[in-house]
Write a structure and sequence with these properties.
Chain lengths: ~400, ~400
């Protein structure tokens, strides 16, 4: 049975935390479409986010209301403890139709509660709330004052509870197995797709005590000239001797993610690659060391930058981001980034994926860690050697 | 090497087809953010769609321009044959930043080409073009006239080329193996996550001749009371004797999908389930029989509905949708649906997933086929028994 993953008390705390942020932002109503935010607030799960769905959270009235496709309403009843009246299905004719849109139904639901003249927060930069839906709400609710919720719920998720940390640690145990399987399996002549098969297998079987979930990003493994860019996926070509492969992998436990990148070379590596891998690991560990409560994200990046500068390297892109509960297409939380100018102050039990990739023309290195912020610095969730992996 | 999957001539034909639709819609410029549409037009691939990226296609000037994150530009060079000047990267500081947005950069790119006063089509109901991005374009390009492109490229994709059909057929060969592995593996006491491990493994290893890709929807396998709703994913609970499981699975070959659903019962099935499965298969085959060039989507649905009505069943939701090239979160193309009121006329070599699920309170049946429209009716791409699978 699907069942609940967290206690009702924990969901109640989360709802209270979000309402407190809503009060500060002056919001009467929040329209939540991000599947991770919906899950975090209510426990709702299922691969139903490809059709519009929302949780409506009013500042003062009712609890959260789930609005979604009729065939998914039983999933809301099975995975949440929302009362029956808080599960509000729309008929299937709204789905991908030229005549009507689920946002029409959503507007009608808001109106039926008398919430149409409030200040309404919308997830204006989410994947699962479209410009068409937004325009429909604006037209259908002319008395509302709309605001960009600016990742309000995402920010409420940034410090993990003990129950969440326990899932992060379980994910990390699976990630160790996934990365070990990938490193054990890669060899000249092995088809990329066959290695990916083993990676997925390890992600799902997990451990004898618990299994894994789908991850929000698929296994990434650029190889050869492809290592100059991070987001290529696999083909069915074989891995080749004399080439590097970057593996950015993860495991997810109940949708909590622990990502990890490692770099492998088949055969003796070029000096540049070996040297760069050493600098990346040194810089990564300097960043972890700096990741203490009270430090800012920018200061963590600066600790990395000081190391690589000493070695004559530069990197323009951010070196990490908050991570945790997520759904495709991204396991990042879209809140704090480890980069210059991000003055987010670290707090104990925030989790980040620090992934300081260095990419050149047709080559690159990624060595990363997912860590939790502790008084002693960023605590790595996995224990896997950070060295460049060299296989013959 | 990543390389190209289709000939330049085929991409040129696609671009010409889209420009012809743009002319009918009166569009000077199309902003394409859907990763499947980007892939179809240019060949660009990679799991980079979690940050904003776009292909700009002008009616008369230049070829398609790729605009995306700097670290992904090498992937554009590796997977497309766009000229160097047509790959336009934005700096990493635009990513998930409170100060600036990739849409600012996109607007600047449009302005730099002198396209800011044209009629510009936007994918207003896509996953990868946000309301915030849309508002930024509206503000930054006040002289433009914006239009909802209404799935313009998706509609151009609906009839498959011979090269595309060949990938659909390869995907189907993998799907057969995936479904067979799932049916072979399910048994009382087996953890759901372990069966999913085998499913993913089969999806990726494919055949000796070609491997598989990630699918746009993860394996769906509601079990027990969960079979009353279609989009639940797995847990690590074991499958139980006396319970049904619905498997909606797929395989993807170079991102072309062949989905298939089957229903399994562990132990002697309840009569209601066995009877319903028989009716669903009969109705499904009636729909396939009706899927000839010249028939409408509504007529295909009517053929199904006539069968189940005779058996005293009704179904409110659509029974299928166009399918092909896609990226998460949906393998459907968001164009034609097999349902009453959809008067899309079928043409040879359109592909659909016909999935007439019947769900009751805590139980359900799904038996589906992916088919290609031919003069002899819908040709099933897979050859797997449609019967309710009963295992002891």
């Amino acid at each position: 049975m699907p069942g609940r993953f967290f206690t009702t008390a924990e969901h109640d705390q989360r709802i209270a935390a979000v309402r407190s942020r809503m009060a500060k932002a002056g919001l009467d109503l929040l329209v939540v479409c991000d599947p991770a935010n919906i899950d975090w607030l209510t426990g709702y799960r299922g691969w139903s986010f490809y059709t519009p769905q929302a949780v409506l959270l009013h500042q003062a009235q009712d609890g959260p209301l789930w609005v979604g496709r009729e065939m998914d309403a039983p999933a809301a009843r099975l995975t949440t403890d929302l009362p029956a009246a808080a599960v509000i299905p729309y008929p299937d004719g709204y789905v991908q139709s030229p005549d009507r849109h689920p946002a029409d139904f959503l507007a009608e639901t808001i109106r039926s509660r008398g919430w149409q003249a409030g200040r309404i927060g919308l997830e204006m930069d989410g994947y699962y709330f479209s410009p068409r839906a937004c325009d429909i709400l604006r037209t259908a609710l002319p008395d509302a004052r709309f605001a960009d919720s600016d990742q309000l719920v995402n920010w409420a998720r940034i410090v993990k509870s003990p129950a969440e940390l326990s899932l992060m640690r379980q994910a990390a145990l699976i990630t160790e197995r996934v990365v070990e399987a990938a490193i054990a399996g890669i060899a000249p002549g092995i088809r990329q797709c066959d290695l990916v098969a083993d990676i997925y297998h390890a992600q799902m079987t997990g451990t004898a005590d618990f299994g894994g979930d789908f991850t929000a990003i698929c296994p990434l493994l650029p190889t050869g000239r492809g290592t100059g860019t991070p987001h290529l996926t696999w083909t069915d070509d074989p891995f080749a001797s004399g080439e590097a492969t970057i593996m950015e992998l993860a495991a997810a436990r109940r949708h909590y993610h622990c990502p990890m990148a490692r770099t492998v070379h088949l055969g003796p590596p070029p000096q540049r690659l070996a040297d760069t891998a050493q600098v990346v690991a040194e810089g990564l560990n300097a960043a972890l060391e700096a990741a203490r409560p009270g430090a800012t994200c920018a200061e963590v990046e600066a600790a990395w930058a000081a190391v690589i500068r000493r070695h004559g390297l530069v990197k323009e892109s951010r070196i990490g981001y908050a991570v945790g509960l997520n759904y495709p297409p991204d396991w990042g939380e879209h809140t704090a980034s480890l980069r210059p100018g991000d003055h987010t102050v670290l707090q104990e039990n925030m989790c980040f994926h620090c992934i300081p990739g260095i990419w050149g023309d047709g080559w690159g290195v990624e060595i990363s860690e997912t860590f939790v912020v502790t008084a002693a610095g960023g605590e790595r969730l996995c224990n896997v050697s950070q060295e460049l992996v060299v296989k013959s």
